Amino acid sequence: MRENDMLEKDEIFSKVLRAGRRTYFFDVRSTKADDYYITITESKKFTEEDGSFHFKKHKIYLYKEDFTAFREILDEMTNFVLDSKGEEVISERHQKDFKKEYPTDSTDSSEKSYTDIDFDDI
User: Fold this and answer.
1) Helix %, strand %, coil % for the chain, to 5?
2) Cβ-contact 36, 58 below 8 angstroms
């Protein structure tokens, strides 16, 4: 069997999700017994100081017997996060040039929550 025939048999269906420095690959693959399973691969790009880069990859194999439990737990986890924190993405905090903005104090500047001490008094 030619290599292309093996690839066609192995990779049945694929989707890609690009998310900043990360890329997620979702692939349906075929076993030797011609059954299907899913692989989820996270690829993260790292840039070196000299400008060169490399990728680190992590892969999960998900078999049909685990689909229902996996989906239930994933749904539960994503619902928990969205219910707890909402859908707003706060990814700016992870950017190199992020500067935290502090809320302006609505109290009068003459009202201080500390004691003004003159060091000559000590």
Assistant:
1) 30, 35, 35
2) no
